[in-house]
Amino acid sequence: MENKYQRVKDSLKEAILSGKYPIDEKLPTETELMEQFKVSRYTIRRAVGDLETEHFIYRIQGGGMFVQDWHKDWATENDSKMIGVITTHIADYIFPQIIYGMDKIISDGGYSLLLGNTHNNHDKERKNLINMLNSKVAGLIIEPTQSALPNPNMDLYQEIKDDQIPVLFINAAYPQLEFPYVTTDDVGAEKKLIDHLLQMGHESILGIFQVDDIQGVHRMNGFVQAYQEHPDISYKSNLIMYQSGDDFSRITSRIASYLKDNERPTAIACYNDQLAIPVMAFVKEQGFRVPQDISIVGFDNYQMSQYMSPGLTTLNHEKEIMGEDAGRMMFQLLNKQPVQSITYEPELVIRQSTGAPKSS
Fold this sequence. Notes:
InterPro entries: AraR_ligand_bind_dom, LacI/GalR-like_sensor, Peripla_BP_I, Tscrpt_reg_HTH_GntR, WH-like_DNA-bd_sf, WH_DNA-bd_sf
Pfam family, one: Peripla_BP_3
Keywords: DNA-binding, Transcription, Transcription regulation
GO molecular function: DNA-binding transcription factor activity; transcription cis-regulatory region binding
Protein name: Transcriptional regulator
CATH architecture of the largest domain: 3-Layer(aba) Sandwich
Structural class: alpha/beta
Number of strands: 14
C-alpha cells in the first residue's frame, strides 16, 4: 500500500510541477484517479491529503479538487548566500572551467554555488529551476536548454522576472527574455573559420551543426554567410544538421555517404571540438588522412584538442574568463547596478588538422 500511495502522490505532483495541470485547474475526481492508477479510494485520499497539506491542491466543497498556486514566495528579500548555476552539462567538456571561473569570483564575495544539470532537456530544466527557487537562491546563472526550440518553461521564467530575481545567461540567451548574458559571437567566429578554409583553397566543405541550440544555428549561419561571399562555389557546400539527443552513428552514416562521393568534401567543419574529435577518429577509420585528405576544424578550443594527433584547428572559447565575468555581473545584479551584456570575439587557433587540399 505504501508503494502505491507514494506512486500516486509522486505522479500527481510531477504532473502539477510540469504544468500538465495549471494553477486553479480542476483535477480528476477520486473515482477517475482510482481508475487511472488502479488503486483504492483510501490510497487516492491519502496521496491527495498529503498534496493538500503541502499546498499543491485545494478543495472546494461540492466542487472538487483544484491545483493550488504551489509557487513558494520566491522573492529574494532573504539572507541567501547561494547562487544557482544551471548548465546543460557540468562535469565534462568546457563546463568545469566555466564553473571554476564563476566560483573564484562568487566565493570571494562570500557566496557559494548550487549546481544543476539539465542534460539539454527541458523537463530537467524545469526541475532544476523549481529546485533552485525552492532553495531560495539569491540569483541564477543559466545556460539555456535547447535554446533554438520553443521553451515550455516560460511560465517559470516569467515568474522569476516578476519576482525580480537576478538572472543572467551564459553561452546563449532566450530571445524572448531580456535578461543580460555573456556569450560568443558564434556567427562571426564560424564565418572567420570557414573563411580560413576557403583561403587555403578548400571549396567543398561539409558543415555539421547541432540545431536545437541557438549556438549551433548561429554557427551554421556563419558557415552560410562565408559561402554567400563566394557564390561561384556555394553549390559545393554541404550541411548535416542534428539534435543533441541524436546518436552519433546517425551522424557518421551521413558523413560516410559524403566520403564515398567522387566529389567528396576536402574539409569538415564541426559544431564544436566535442564533435570534431570523434569525427576525426571516424574519418581516419575510413582510411583518410588528416589533413592530407580531409581537413577538420572544431569550435571552443577544448583542452584535449591540442593533444590530438594532429592537433585540432579551432576557435577559442573564453571559458574561465566567461565564468569570472558572469560572477562579476551577478554581483552587479545583486547590488541593483546596471549590467552590460558581453559578447566575446573568439580567436582562431590554427593547428595541424588543417592544410591545403590536394588539388591546390
